Amino acid sequence: MSGGKLLVFSAPSGSGKTTIVRHLLQQEDLNLEFSVSATSRAPRGDEKHGENYYFISLKDFKQHIKQGDFLEWEEVYRDNFYGTLKKEVERIWANGKNVIFDIDVVGGLRIKKKYPDRTLAVFVKPPSVDELKRRLKKRKTESEERINMRIAKASVELATAPQFDVIIENIDLQVALQKSHDLVSEFIQDKLQLDEEE
What we know:
This protein is of the alpha/beta class. It has helices spanning 17-25, 58-66, 86-94, 105-114, 129-139, 144-158, 173-188, and strands at residues 6-10, 32-34, 38-39, 54-55, 70-77, 80-85, 98-102, 119-125, 166-169. 40% of the residues lie in helices and 21% in strands. The strands form two sheets. A five-stranded parallel β-sheet has the order 2-7-1-8-9.
């Protein structure tokens, strides 16, 4: 694989990472393209194949795993797989763009491990677990049981934050957006000094 940079944004569900990623994609100076993940789950609401996710059957997903087609993959919930196809990253790099990921913490750290020098791994931290729960309830997209599952998962995910290059605390969205833009811009231009390189 040759090409641009990899920008990984990971966070517990409800932290605001998707809002940040969408904002960064609109900034032309960053030359970003979104890496669409593959999943074995069914589409929700008005999700579109190839836009929100590549929706693949469980059988086909497992076949892709066997063939080594994924840059990273994970069984997030039972029989609910998510992953990044290598050909998706190659496609974006072939277009001369940098790849941005909106991905769970395990997948994000796996990408960083595979491409340590060309990946900026950013952890978006919510102000608190209580605020996270409030945001998830406000979405009105999931049952109380699903929200509680996400909150339990969030506590585990928050513990991985120190393994990322940078932690952005999303208390004030405008501040988080600006900080994210500055970080990505510096990294793309090779001006960002990460701690391990200093």
